[in-house]
Amino acid sequence: MLKSLPISFLVFSMVLPRELASQDLIDGVAAIVGDKMILKSDVLQLAQMNALQIGLDLTSDPNLLSQYQENALNLLLTQKIMIARAKVDSLDEIPAADVDQALDQQIDNILAQVGTETRFEEVLNQSVRDFRSERWSDVRDQIIAERYQSERIKHVSITRHEVEDFFHTYRDSLPSMETRLELSQIIIPIHTGREAEEQAYNLISQVAQSLAQGENFSALALQYSDDPVSSTQGGDLGYVRRGEFVNEFEEIAFQLDDGEISEIIKTVFGYHIIQLINRQGEKINVRHILININPTDQDRETSLDLIRKHYFLLSENPALFDSLLKVIIDEAESELSEIGYIGWVTLSQLPLESYRTALFGLRTNQISPPFETPDGFHILKVLRYQEGGAPTLEGFYPQIEALALRNKQTIYFNNWLEDIRSHVFIKIL
What we know:
The protein has helices at residues 23-26, 40-52, 62-88, 96-114, 117-124, 128-153, 160-170, 194-212, 217-224, 247-253, 297-316, 321-332, 353-359, 393-419, and strands at residues 29-33, 36-39, 180-188, 236-240, 265-267, 270-280, 283-291, 340-346, 371-373, 376-386, 426-428. By secondary structure, the protein is of the alpha+beta class. It has three domains: 18-156 and 404-428, Triger factor/SurA peptide-binding fold, CATH 1.10.4030; 180-193 and 296-386, Chitinase A, domain 3, CATH 3.10.50.40; 194-291, Chitinase A, domain 3 (Roll), CATH 3.10.50. The strands form three sheets. The protein has a four-stranded antiparallel sheet, with helices on both faces. A four-stranded antiparallel sheet has the order 4-7-6-5, with helices on both faces. A three-stranded antiparallel sheet has the order 2-1-11. A hairpin with a 2-residue loop joins strand 6 (270-280) and strand 7 (283-291). The longest helix is centred in the first third of the chain and has 27 residues, at 62-88. Residues 1-27 have low confidence and may be disordered.
């Protein structure tokens, strides 16, 4: 895929605050952007994370580390201007759940690359728990910046003439196009039944009873909690602000007194018991014990039986896919946003290997066998199939159009940044 030129961001602000004149503050600072600082530690951490996402270890290559740090600094400068402009335009509000999801995905990606939490701590020089606590605000800023950038460029459009000019200009550098499939899917989630609910509640009740009898909260969290990050820390979630957790959790946590232990509460994650360690201004230090509500074998078998019935029906008559899908969507209501039409994707864009395996050898109007993911059981239908190959306007116009549009958006965005450059104070240290 053709890569656009890197975007260098300069951040909008007016004056350098007098407090930054202190040498104590300047130590450890990579850059000053208006009234904001970018710390060297933040630059290093971002460089390491970006490298880890593609499996690179920067610790043994100083030149590569320097290159990634330079790129990371540019990205952080990018975020500063986006955050500042988003605030001016009242576009800086992000749901906490979106931040939590993005942060969880980031942590999962890093763990997938390094293998263990111990290696995570060695590479990033901090525990997963501390990383989560410190990175929350940074991830929030990253999301705000990305969404603001999307808002700035969404009006940019492209004509067929511009697409043709782009193709003729860059045709020699365009790689071979990937095979694409237009997909729709049926999902049957694995619902937890009454038995699963009772098992989880009975276990959390036993934990609550042990706490009432004076047993140590941290020891019980280590023994029982299903939170993979905090359980190894005795359930400690560190200091948190409002908006960092789901509402049911926060409503109880922020009402507790120092040392107080909550009653059993239920969230989308399962059953919790919370203890407030202490309060520091608008932040609280809490720990919790989480018991997940895990589907039983019978719950799984129920869903598996249903997906098998659907597959048997579709294997006899694939044309019934859309009718069956409509029935399932009506029954599920808004439960699954992923159900139904997926759209055009390449195999590399599919989220899990199980998708690629299920689609192997399938062509237009063919149905995949059932397969399982954390979301439940799936059946895919290939609506259309397009073999990859050398790029041509006739065969791959939508892909080339997307590349041309992205290139035009990048040029527009860079020009917009240059236009406000004269209003920005930036000092690289």
